[in-house]
Amino acid sequence: MIVVIPPPLHSGPMIDLLRVLLPRACPGCGAQLGRAAGLCDRCRAELRPRVERHSPLSAQATPHLVTLGRYQGVPRRAVRALKYGGARDVAGPLGRALAAGVPASWQIAAVVPVPLHPSRQRERGYNQAELLAQAMAAELGVPCLPLLTRTRATAQQAKLHASERSSNLAGAFAVRGAVPPGTLLILDDVLTTGSTLLACRDALHAAGVTDLKYAAVAR
User: Fold this and answer.
1) What is the per-residue pLDDT for 87?
2) Which residues lie closer than 8 Å to 195 by C-beta, 6 or more apart?
3) Which of 40, 141, 165, 196 has its CA 20 to 30 A from that of 203?
4) 87 belongs to a structural domain
5) Residue 162 φ then ψ, to 5°
6) What is the largest CA-CA distance in the chain?
7) Element (H or E) spanning 65, and its range?
């Protein structure tokens, strides 16, 4: 007898297939989506972008960060579905909602996703920040540029104390390829202490980038 062992549940293609074939619930509220993608209309209406000031990220008093609010409710459940449940289609409505909050005065030239280490991306099947950045960039009419790379594997930030997060990411990012002129927007899924975005900022500053803005689904 031949026994067929299915791929592990975290396999991206397998989860994508299941999400097409099986009835799906909205990750934000649990309502049935049918064949609709991402989030239901009610949950999309709850995604309200805002420009905030995060002291370590803002050199001046001017806010440099756009988010969809606190890491709770619909944003939290949607991020967790994207990050851990294989719900790639959630990236579209989240990224587009973030783009709606970007002031025209920022004049964004490109969106730069926070990278995963290659080993973690192979395990997950995709980089959730890159999917968010692609949706956001498309809405803004600018390119999504994977300019950053992880130079070493790091411990998961969510499992570390706040005091350990900065040292965990020190020197963990580098710039690859040519950096375009203009303002770049760095995007991550969740902002807690800001250590990840600050480490990305330092890498881009070292490459000569001076004008940066930031985005995160939730903080």
Assistant:
1) 92
2) 157, 165, 166, 168, 169
3) 141
4) yes
5) -55, -40
6) 69
7) strand 65-67
- In whole angstroms, give the CA distance from residue 111 to residue 184: 6
Q: For residue 6, tell me if it sits in a domain.
A: no
| Residue-range definition of the domain harbouring residue 146 | 12-218
What total number of domains does the chain contain? 1
Token pair 């070493």 in the structure block, residue = 152
Q: Terminus-to-terminus CA distance in the chain, angstroms? A: 52
Query: At residue 109, what is the residue type?
Result: A
Give the tens place of pLDDT for each residue, 140-168.
Answer: 999 999 999 988 765 454 444 454 444 55
3-state secondary structure of 171: coil
Cβ–Cβ under 8 Å, residues 186 and 114: yes
Q: What is the CATH number of the domain that holds 158?
A: 3.40.50
Give domain status of residue 171, yes or no: yes
The pLDDT tens digits of the residues spanning 111-130 come to: 999 998 888 888 889 999 99
Q: Evaluate whether 144 touches 133 at the Cβ level (below 8 Å).
A: yes
Q: What is the DSSP letter of 10?
A: T
* pTM flag (> 0.90): no
Q: Is the alpha carbon torsion for 62, 176, 190, 105 positive or negative?
A: positive
